[in-house]
């Protein structure tokens, strides 16, 4: 059940590295922006700049999809959107249940970016009787006791866990026992799952930590790695960074 | 103001690639878990598995910090935590203001993962008079008119924008005009900033898209890239994926 074994298996099956898979949604976001501006074709350099990667990496990533562009023209935006969407599985609808309807669960329930990418939130569940029955983003919150029935009735294929840490593993176990094999975890805890189940964890502080790195650079730190030595780097470095991973 | 120019400048200055910087918080998360279990040393293989990367990449990443471990022993957990925290700038406090106190802003205001990494939320701001004055996670929401004063008075160095898309650019401009050079953007819009300002964008749907990719694989799709051809890949592939980027 190690992640490496399965990642290698994945590579052997399809030849698409995990790191490429992780960048495809970023390319897709950039391509959607181009579509909004009625751009029909895009060079690898332009698309790479918009996505915040270098163009050689972009071309290699897209070659895994069998997409090579046309010399002197670039990539056809609409077809590339179709190819990436198809590769990611976004050309079909995915039924999502959100478990835990606190502030984060509410924010996710109303998040416009889900519906536009083919994710349909079909259920909101919480254990708190004072929340059950409330209408959030047009949907009534249901009691967590209904979890298994709701998954079966509505064909839920992805569970989003947005509960406190202490509740997450138990709910994850119930979700997996109900046959769901994809879990997006916002709870601050590492979930254990059997082989065949994908868990991805979102840590909202990671992007802040990357900003702190650059903020420190701008201030001139941290200097060399002599234990506890004071910083001695020249100040004034500036950066503009587009997030490649969110 | 292109991202590539500045990224290259960054590399030349310090020799730490952006991709390595993005993985350091993931290593740190894994190391904190080891500390909680009183683990004193860790091999590169163990740490790599916990972080979801391969061990060669981990060793190379850590070598940028001047950290090479000890043959047969591995890395000393406590010292590596110190090195990474120092590199990321987490050994000092960062003062954060959250702009936009809807569901997401509330979730971020109460997010435990910020304080524990050195991020102190010193202000909550909103334009909605019905929200101003409310107490969220022990802090009173202030009117957005106070933005510039609040940044100056409290020494805000990182602004978190959690507003609707339409308001984000104007608020970003005000934040930047007040001297803040790090912006974490949750609004579904690309922000324009002058050179010297770092923006990182969080798209909450990206992890879901990666799950969809694997879910589709498990179901046997999408097959080859003949336009509109039906999927013809053997079913039954399973994966376990640890999120490397959040």
From TrEMBL, chains A, B:
Gene3D superfamilies: NAD(P)-binding Rossmann-like Domain, Winged helix-like DNA-binding domain superfamily/Winged helix DNA-binding domain
Positions with a binding annotation for NAD(+): 100-105
Domain CoA-binding intervals: 89-190
Main location: cytoplasm
Key words of the record: Cytoplasm, DNA-binding, NAD, Repressor, Transcription, Transcription regulation
KW Cytoplasm (keyword) present: yes
Residues annotated to bind DNA: 26-65
Subcellular location field: Cytoplasm
InterPro entries reported for this sequence: CoA-bd, NAD(P)-bd_dom_sf, Rex_actinobacterial-type, Rex_DNA-bd_C_dom, Tscrpt_rep_Rex, WH-like_DNA-bd_sf, WH_DNA-bd_sf
Keyword Nuclease applies: no
Any Pfam family matching the protein: CoA_binding
Family (UniProt): Belongs to the transcriptional regulatory Rex family.
Self-association and partners: Homodimer.
UniProt-listed PANTHER family: REDOX-SENSING TRANSCRIPTIONAL REPRESSOR REX, REDOX-SENSING TRANSCRIPTIONAL REPRESSOR REX 1
Role according to the record: Modulates transcription in response to changes in cellular NADH/NAD(+) redox state.
Protein name: Redox-sensing transcriptional repressor Rex
Organism: Actinomadura vinacea
Gene: rex
